[in-house]
Design goal:
By secondary structure, the protein is mostly helical. The chain has helices spanning 14-25, 39-51, 65-76, 81-92, 94-101, 105-113, 120-136, 142-150, 161-164, 174-189. The chain has two domains: 9-76, no CATH class; 81-189, no CATH class. The protein is 58% helix and 0% strand.
Length: 192
């Protein structure tokens, strides 16, 4: 990604930014220009999402907040590892990804290159990380996101997000849900 910070989001429609940031975190679109709301960008975002096989019903309709919100919500539930590997690695780096995903360096390389099919559980974890990154992207740059994962958090009982995402975890487990809730609270409150 060329730019990993979000400009003043108070001027952009929330549904548009929500979709643009998620699409970027998933690697479906690249570049800071996606954070500039316009009818052309909104249509192109919906097309990129549709090419990934998500929110196809929104394609070809007028572009409005409802379609953008529906597409953003659909992205929440649709891992897309073919683009998420590179996007997440650009934010976290390989070493942190290996730790968070519970995989070896060689597995990371095979999955990310497409040399081996990403197992469902790993794809689900990878997508979870992309959504956490999307939640953090408005408050932190790449360095800040990496540091966020390593800082102890009161909301996690004094543990770090890395500790809450260690071992055999599933995004629906209590620890990961707490990590996601903490990341989402930054988006909801607008604070860092």
């Amino acid at each position: 990604m060329a730019s990993k910070t979000v400009s003043d989001s108070s001027e952009a429609p929330p549904a548009y930014l929500h979709l643009a940031i998620r699409a970027q975190a998933m690697g479906l679109v690249v570049g800071a220009h996606w954070l500039e709301p316009s009818a052309e960008n909104a249509a192109a975002l919906l097309a990129a999402v549709a090419r990934a096989g998500v929110a196809i019903a929104a394609r070809g309709q007028g572009v409005g907040g409802g379609q953008l919100a529906a597409a953003a919500q659909a992205l929440e539930d649709c891992p897309f590892p073919s683009t998420e590997w590179a996007a997440v690695e650009s934010w976290l780096g390989a070493e942190l990804m290996e730790t968070l995903l519970g995989i070896s360096e060689s597995s990371l390389r095979r999955y990310s290159s497409g040399g081996r099919l990403t197992p469902d559980l790993i794809a689900t974890r990878l997508h979870f990380l992309a959504m956490v990154i999307a939640d953090l992207a408005g408050s932190y740059n790449g360095f800040g996101v990496r540091r966020w994962f390593g800082r102890s958090r009161t909301a996690l009982g004094g543990r770090t997000p890395v500790a809450a995402l260690s071992g055999e975890w599933d995004p629906d487990d209590l620890g990961p849900r707490a990590v996601r809730g903490l990341a989402q609270s930054l988006t909801d409150s607008g604070s860092t």
